[in-house]
Amino acid sequence: MTYSVAVSGASGYAGGEILRLLAGHPDIEIRTVTAHSNAGQPLVDHQPHLRSLAHLTLQDTTPETLAGHDIVFLALPHGQSGQYTDALGGVPLVIDAGADHRLTSEESWDAFYGGDFHEPWTYGVPELIVNGVKQRENLRGATRIAAPGCNASTVSLSLAPGVAAGVIKPSDIVSVLAVGPSGAGKSLKPHLLGSELLGTANPYAVGGTHRHIPEIRQALAAAAGTGLDGIRVSFTPVIVPMSRGILATSSAPIAAGATDAQIRDAWESAYSGETFVQLLPEGRFPRTADVLGANTALMGLAIDRAANRVIVVTAVDNLVKGTAGAAVQSMNLALGLPEDRALTVNGVAP
To answer: Beta partners for 5?
Structure first.
């Protein structure tokens, strides 16, 4: 069966990456692409690397344009998806790459986003541990999926095995991330100009203000099988001059009595057999270059007994495993297709 697809926000980074992956999917027909200010222009003018889709023209983003497809992907700025999802009840599968349907707590939404709160959808991180099972079981047959925030899923995947196994304490999590500016979207912002980025590293959203914090807490609480109480996260992203990629260094205190063997086994057991989340051999740590263009999260684990902390370093491509790849992987599960269809573990080098 071939599924017809519409992609909104198709002129942006996330929308473009969704299209790049879907263009190689044998079960998908990309029928419609939409935008706002760029509507009426050829898609290839804004995504010149998508040569196989040069025949498509960007249409206005309206519920009427998006309706009538088997699958709709929404790659819109945060707070804009909800106005369309409410009107797409007849579409069999809708996947939102924005934040509108990620959070279960209205209080957290109000504190970090504001505006109208929309119902939470099935969270699109298949490898995440949720109440003792992998999230992929909840994605099978899902009709509404919330693709993750790239930073949030990276940190959550980094620490969920230790939280679920009880070998680390989630009350003092510290994560510092080096991130590429493509995670901030394609719209022009002075602080994201090349002349402002090259040769420097810039921290932002310091002091507990980043919008992905409640998403991380929510995911780790699900891994622990508890409420949000006792899940404390200090999260500091730093923009660095690479177009895409995340290198997340996350640490948490070691739980009393946990041995080194038990700690490493928690991660090895969680990700053994996983295609897209891989734990490197002891003493090895990933680079962002190793995952460029791939739907892969590579992680290295260290045990610092002097500081009594576990450190996990994880590399992802923020536009692939962090966003579009997670969305397509979740789509495959929802449709009953092979989970890895149109996705690769192979990066691009050099």
So the answer is: 30, 71
Instruction: Report the b/e string of 284-294 with b at 16+ CB within 10 A.
Output: ebbebebbbbb
Distance CA 286, CA 305 (A): 22
Place of tokens 């890895």: 340
| pLDDT at residue 189 tops 90 | no
List the catalytic residue out of 150, 165, 247, 319.
Answer: 150
Asked if 277 contacts 157 with a C-beta cutoff of 8 angstroms, the reply is yes
150 carries an active-site annotation: yes
Tell me the backbone φ, ψ of residue 39, rounded to 5 degrees.
-60, 145
pLDDT tens for residues 24-42?
A: 999 999 999 999 999 999 9
Using the predicted structure, report yes or no on whether residue 108 has a pLDDT greater than 80: yes
Contacts of 284 (CB under 8 A, 6+ apart): 300
Tell me, what's the pLDDT at 197? 83
pLDDT given for residue 316 in this prediction: 98
Which runs of E-coded beta strand occur in 255-330?
A: 277-279, 297-304, 309-316
At residue 313, what is the residue type?
A: V
Across the range 42-70, mean pLDDT stands at 97
How far is Cα 208 from Cα 47, in angstroms, rounded to an integer? Answer: 35
C-alpha angle 205-207-211 in degrees, rounded to nearest 5: 45
**pLDDT tens-digit readout, 142-161:** 999 999 999 999 999 999 99
Cα 125 to Cα 63, 140, 295, distances in angstroms: 27, 12, 12
| 123 contacts 147 by C-beta, under 8 angstroms | no
